[in-house]
Design brief:
CATH topology of the largest domain: Rossmann fold
Radius of gyration: 16 Å
CATH superfamily of the largest domain: P-loop containing nucleotide triphosphate hydrolases
Shape: globular
Helix content: 10-25%
Strand order of the largest sheet: 3-7-6-5
Structural class: alpha/beta
Largest sheet: 4 strands, parallel
Number of helices: 5
Number of domains: 2
């Protein structure tokens, strides 16, 4: 018998200004899944991922996450304002008991020192810092939008065969 899913969404509906973006969406994500949402721009892929990550409320939904499971969302445009360095930004994504050395390790693996000032980062550097932030706590589930689709090597850094779901315009970059 298969283990229960880490996350489920049932009867999920999202509207903006009375217009339904999507209705009756169902999703089930299990350990080790590598999933890809493929749809046109503006169809609600990123919003669906934010709902699944618990960042956006919907008109109607039933969301269940297995107790103890960690879920992270990699934003398309990370906001590092309010942080003095990339290291403090990444460390802010850790929970008590998480390995703080992992923050520095991941930044180094992604080509950053941890001493960079957020206001001087390029867009790519900011996305790499955001990737380190969501991977540092070793999430059970990682949701990533199309603009920041992690590389295969970054996805492979998820310890324990973590689960990931990505939103893409097409599946060409997903492996």
């Amino acid at each position: 018998m298969a283990p229960p899913p880490l996350l489920t969404l049932q009867s999920t509906r999202l509207t903006f200004g009375g217009t339904a973006l999507f209705e009756d969406v169902e999703m089930s994500v299990s350990t080790g899944d590598r999933l890809c949402l493929v749809e046109r721009n503006g169809s609600g892929k990123s919003n669906l991922l934010k709902i699944a990550a618990g960042l956006v409320e919907t008109d109607s939904r039933r969301r269940f996450v297995q107790p103890g499971a960690t879920v992270r969302y990699l934003p398309q445009e990370p906001d590092l304002s309010g942080f003095s360095t990339t290291l403090t930004y990444v460390e802010a994504g850790l929970a008590p008991g998480d390995d703080h050395y992992r923050a520095q390790y991941l930044l180094n693996e992604l080509g950053l020192s941890g001493e960079e000032k957020p206001d001087t980062l390029s867009g790519g550097e900011a996305r790499r810092a955001a990737l380190a932030r969501v991977l540092a706590p070793v999430p059970d589930i990682l949701f990533a939008g199309q603009a920041d689709q992690p590389s295969r090597s970054a996805r492979d850094r998820m310890a324990g065969g973590g689960t990931s779901l990505h939103a893409l315009r097409d599946g060409s970059d997903f492996a």
